[in-house]
Amino acid sequence: MNRLGFVLYILWAAAAAAAQSLPSNWSFAHPDATALIGIDVRILRESAAGQSFGSEFEKSGLGMVHFPGMELLKEVDQVFLSSPGAKAVRKNENPPFLIAVTGHFAAEHLRQVLHGPHKIYRGVNIYTSGEGAKATNLAALDERTILAGDPVSLRGAIDRRSQRAAAPNALRERAAALAAANDFWLIATLSPEDFKAANAQFAPMASEINGLETGISVHDGFNLEMNLATRSPETAVMLSELVSTQVRQATAGKLDNQQAAEFLRALRIDSEGDRMRVKLALTKEEMERQIKTIQTARAAATAPKPQPKPKVEDNAPKTIKIFGLDDGVREIPLSPK
């Protein structure tokens, strides 16, 4: 084999290895996706923040409320979403999307959600939620994989289920890097407006955003990084100032001075060129202190306030006594009126 052939072989082998290293549920992604989202639900559920939220949920009494599919949510391990955006979609339609949910699902829990009339496509039962152009299709490929999406996207995913994940392009390579370091991550190369649901309203500033990368990790403290690509450097500066103001207003009164100072020291919001950047890094100990502070503030806010004691009227007969008179003490009955 000559040198050129050897180099080409090495490149091909590296590409094949990279494609095989991607999670299996990535094979369901839209081939022309411009937005990818991944959530490691199991890690988030087992994290300190997740357990804190779960305990608060149970204490609130809502944990006693059961609805169809609630048990299924506890069996989810990972969620992967892809969408090409809404460039070619009519205004009254939602953008195409495909969600692949993986976990270990009990058959009886699946039947609580997937039941009733359905269609069959390539041997897979497809159930429908909603009507018309806004309908969402649901299907369980097996006890480990559930798919949800618009009808066309879901059928396309079923067609691709026996295929290997496509070789990484620039978007998937960046997504793979985000997934390796984060428990929740999002990457999009279009404006958020291109992914909004039908009839949804976004803030005017959303149209000034060209792309987004976000990663959140909670398995060792709390780490957040977000990068927004904007249409101009001026927009990046404006957004960074707006977010800084909103964060300070949101923390005011909810954290004591020490906790607020610690939080704001760990937070960095700035801009560089046409990008706005947000970074927050808390150690495990700092994260636990923040959670305890929030829990204490929430408990104080929701604690029942002491009720004033009811006023008891004394209707017993009363008299006025006058002392020092020549004829002794005089008693005058007092009328209740």
The level of helicity is 25-40%
CA distance, first residue to last residue: 117 Å
Q: Which structural class is indicated by helix and strand composition?
A: alpha+beta
Helices and strands, in order, run as HEHHHEEHEEEEHHEEEHHEEHEE
How much β-strand is present in the residues?
25-35%
- Coarse morphology: elongated
Quick one: biggest sheet? 12 strands, antiparallel
Number of strands: 14
Strand arrangement, major sheet = 4-5-6-7-3-2-1-8-9-10-12-11
Question: Can you give keywords for this protein?
Answer:
alpha+beta, two-stranded antiparallel ribbon, 35% helix, disordered N terminus
What does this structure look like?
The chain has 337 residues and is of the alpha+beta class. The protein is 35% helix and 28% strand. The protein has a twelve-stranded antiparallel sheet with strand order 4-5-6-7-3-2-1-8-9-10-12-11. A two-stranded antiparallel sheet has the order 13-14. Strand 13 and strand 14 form a beta hairpin.
